[in-house]
Amino acid sequence: MTLEELKIETYALIEEYSEENDYLTEDTDLSTKMNGCINIIQNEMARYKKIEAYKEEEVFEGQTMMVNEIDDNIYQLDIIKGVEYEKERSLITFKETGIARFFYYKYPERITMDTPDDYTFELDPDAVEIMPYGVAGLLLSADVSNNYGNLYTNLYEQRKQMLDPRKSMPSVYIEEIGGI
Known about the structure:
By secondary structure, this protein is α+β, with helices and mostly antiparallel strands. It is built from four helices and six strands, in the order ααββββββαα. It has helices at about 5-15, 30-50, 125-140, 150-160; strands at about 50-60, 65, 75-80, 85-90, 90-95, 100-105. The strands form two sheets. The protein has a three-stranded antiparallel β-sheet, with no helix packed on it. A three-stranded antiparallel β-sheet has the order 2-5-4, with no helix packed on it. The N and C termini lie far apart (about 50 Å).
């Protein structure tokens, strides 16, 4: 889903969509807050449905690095393969020279007012599909005259609980041993 598609879905959900308007809505307050709200919700979703990332780097015996040196947007280190290493808190010390293969999770690209509408979300499709409810809840949270902000926030929370945060299913291989 693109940023523009998410905006259209959100505006349509709250009945503020205007196809003729360049900002997709007549309400300038909503259009001003939209990208910021989308960024907040996508970051929340990225902590629940993590974005996998991979990087290879040549490392040397005795070299140290901090976890945040792997990637500016790193959220959580999963594992390092290819070389022996020792990790103490956020400090990694390599025990041998070779190619380190970093498997980690990262934050998505930040959505700002300058983000183009053709930006495609890095999140899994099931996570992006429920984002309009969270964005609508945030957009309408300041409007105390009605309860729509709470309504959309509750719908978002319910749908979020139905998401499966796993990236893969464990597998088991059973081998026959000695004719048993």
